[in-house]
């Protein structure tokens, strides 16, 4: 009987060690997921900072803000989980589960908002044509700087193609001969923006390319959430098993102290 009890105790210890190892590995994966999620949010904010004039509202940044918040919780939860793999604490295990629930709520909200904005993206960048029409050709003008930076970064010209520039007031002021130099294809060093040499200009418009870039970032946030949820499920199951097999602390029944009266004083035995 004593041997059987020792065997069961040894098996329980091995099982707990295996669960703690799994917890440690999954928490390291949680760090990696947190970094990826955080980078997706940073990338979206960086792109928005350069293209903010094209958007009628700033709400498209909400998925990025929630994603960054989720990334911070993921990193903090990963650290807490790694600590839990080294010690037993019911209080910290409960806190760990609570943080996983918070992350689930943040990721769900970010994913839902990202999907909403991906569907409404075309209407949210309705200011695209307006920004191009107010182009002044000066780097000190915010609209002009945004247009040039967009055309150079995305290698595009105009809203739909270079012919959109033919209807702008800036094109008329230049004598109706040139489009901005940022329209020039980098493979043609001699390009000066002349519409008579349109083959040296970027063929695609900017609106489609900007939409594709933001669609990609929003889709990354949407499809990143299931990965976070999968890791969370494994962690919840692991912690649940650890909490289930948590060794109970031994409790000792305290006896009522004995006392005897001596000289009117009570003496308590410890």
Describe the protein's architecture and organization.
Helices cover 63% and strands 3% of the residues. Helix 1 packs antiparallel against helix 8 (206-244). The protein starts with a helix and ends with a strand. A hairpin with a 2-residue loop joins strand 1 and strand 2. It is mainly α.
List descriptors.
8 helices, disordered C terminus, Tetraspanin_animals, membrane, disordered N terminus, two-stranded antiparallel ribbon, mainly alpha, 270 residues, Tetraspanin/Peripherin, Tetraspanin_EC2_sf
Quickly describe the structure.
It is found in: Membrane. A two-stranded antiparallel ribbon has the order 1-2.
Give the topology.
Layout lengths: L1 H50 L10 H23 L5 H30 L1 H4 L3 H6 L8 H13 L14 H5 L32 H39 L14 E4 L2 E4 L2
Antiparallel strand pairs: 1-2
